[in-house]
Write a structure and sequence with these properties.
It is built from ten helices and 15 strands. With about 300 residues, the chain is of the alpha/beta class. The protein has a single domain, classed as NAD(P)-binding Rossmann-like Domain (Rossmann fold, 3-Layer(aba) Sandwich). A seven-stranded parallel beta sheet has the order 3-2-1-4-5-7-12, with helices on both faces. Strands 6-15 form a two-stranded parallel sheet. α1 packs across α6 and α3 runs parallel beside α4. The longest helix has 24 residues.
Length: about 300
């Protein structure tokens, strides 16, 4: 396994693969993360920018599972273009150089995208057949949709099958900002009268690994990755307050802050409000989330 952009998900993925005896190589921009990965037994660990070609000679894709879970190099459109579009071009050049030298194609290539490509605001269920309307997306969503298209079109002589996983909001150990806010005593939150979709960290890891072992008649594709129970954000906050022994009646929701947040995320200034179905991936890859709902995931952390 070669993990490109070995951050929150990448490190958890590396740990799981190493625990099963699978060799792992990785690329990261972060020197401290690189040291942690080496201590885990990842080898080699390359410190480089995915969009550069500096790392190409140090990592070998022949017959490997390639996981691209890079994060934006900086906030805003420029960071997204650099990491996702220039980064994808770099990966494609790396694969082309390798196969031109006689190496086998990669076994599978996986790109972790985001359900941010769905701008729908009607609260209905969406799946992979739901149109992605670029006119309603913010710049991040537009860039991700473009990167997805190029990734899924990688030719078979470069990779036996290519996967795009559109991840819902990731939470898990070390990533639980709503819990943190409540524990600090915060009682005012943006108005949460909209659906959010979540996926527990370890379920993302299991799903990525399932891409390599999916039935041979599944030739990759674009898939959503979310748990089975979307939740209204305000309901999640109130439920978490109860779990912490706090009084839900003391929680207040601010519509003005919600509007400011919406303008940062979409061109329309409206926060997406939709429920994400991952039934297609569950069927194709024989994968089911361990944490089927937010209750199960947060209870794991709270215990």
């Amino acid at each position: 396994m070669v993990i490109l952009g070995c951050g929150y998900i990448g490190e958890a993925l590396a740990r799981a693969a190493l625990a099963s005896g699978e060799p792992v190589a990785a690329l990261t921009r972060n020197a401290a993360r690189a040291a942690e990965l080496r201590a885990l037994g990842v080898s080699p660990v390359i410190e480089a920018d995915l969009a550069s070609s500096d790392w190409h000679a140090a990592l070998h894709p022949s017959g490997a599972d390639i996981i691209n879970c890079v994060s934006p190099s900086s906030p805003g459109e420029e960071g997204y273009r650099h990491s996702f579009l220039a980064g994808l071009t770099s990966v494609r050049n790396w694969l082309e150089t390798s196969t031109a030298s006689g190496a086998r194609p990669a076994r599978s290539v996986v790109f972790t995208s985001s359900t941010a490509v769905y701008p729908q605001t009607d609260g209905n269920w969406v799946d992979e057949g739901t149109p992605v309307d670029s006119a309603k997306l913010g710049s991040a969503g537009v860039i991700l949709a473009e990167a997805e298209k190029h990734w899924i079109e990688l030719s078979p002589n470069l990779a036996q099958r290519a996967w795009v996983l559109r991840l819902a909001g990731i939470y898990g150990p070390g990533r639980h900002h709503l819990l943190d806010a409540l524990r600090k005593g915060e009682t005012t939150f943006p108005d949460g009268n909209h659906w959010i979709n979540l996926i527990y960290r370890d379920d993302v890891v299991a799903a990525i690994r399932a891409c390599a072992t999916a039935p041979s008649d599944i030739h990759g594709g674009i898939f959503n990755l979310a748990d089975n129970e979307p939740v209204q954000k305000r309901d999640l906050i109130l439920w978490l307050a109860q779990q912490l022994g706090q009084n839900p009646a003391a929680i207040h929701f601010d519509q003005a802050e919600n509007t400011r947040s919406a303008h940062r995320r979409t061109s329309s200034g409206v926060i997406p409000d939709r429920r994400i179905s991952s039934a297609k991936f569950q069927k194709a890859a024989k994968w089911n989330p361990l944490c089927r709902s937010y209750q199960e995931g947060y209870k794991l952390m709270l215990s």
